[in-house]
VOC family protein
Amino acid sequence: MGIRLGSTVINCADIDAMTRFWCEALGLRPSSTAPGDTFRLLRGDRGTISLQRALTPVTARDQMHLDLYSDDMEAQVERLVRLGARSVRHVTDDPEDDYVVLADPEGNLFCVCAKPAAQVGER
């Protein structure tokens, strides 16, 4: 039996705000939006993210992050910032590895990486 990435789990304090942000950012659909949810799967054609409500303050944000690939990195960064992300830094040290580090509404870091269109659709 093979193995594949099924989901990336993000611990959060406000599961509703995080559901709205990530569903809009990546075109995902939540498994539920019921009041009192402590865990939600956000599914889409290109991947799955899980949100888990943390019972204690969320810390150690740099232990996990998402890399999002785009063939129009600047437009996607602008769109995500309009949705509530915050720009942290643009890394251009290596011309083959151009990316922008963003923080979601709760401060979780993620990257938007410039990739050719052929690589954006790869799984």
Remarks:
- Residues 15-26 form the longest helix (12 residues).
